[in-house]
């Protein structure tokens, strides 16, 4: 079964998500922004979600995790939980 390893930042608004994406593009550190802004419990780990199989995340997240280029920041990705910024670190 394929697996992906990713980290993310989850926020409640598209506006904040876009603001954080701009900061990341300008060199901000992903883990620090996750710790300061993400509403997901993974924030305490810099947004790290570890490895997971397809179907373990919401479909919108899975699409990015299993198709997007590695080590590139993607977002905003909207799901029922809010707005995600996703970085896929590895994929098997």
Automatic annotation (TrEMBL):
InterPro entries in the record, alphabetically?
A: PPIase_dom_sf, PPIase_PpiC, PPIase_PpiC_CS, PpiC/parvulin_rotamase
Record-linked SUPFAM superfamilies: FKBP-like
Q: Where in the cell is it found?
A: Cytoplasm
Q: What is its EC number?
A: 5.2.1.8
Reactions catalysed, as given in the entry: [protein]-peptidylproline (omega=180) = [protein]-peptidylproline (omega=0)
**Entry-linked Pfam families:** Rotamase (PF00639)
Limits of the PpiC domain? 1-90
GO CC term (a single one): cytoplasm
> GO molecular function of the protein, one example?
peptidyl-prolyl cis-trans isomerase activity
Which family does the record claim for this protein?
A: Belongs to the PpiC/parvulin rotamase family.
What is the name of the protein in this document? Answer: Peptidyl-prolyl cis-trans isomerase C
Source species of the chain: Stenotrophobium rhamnosiphilum
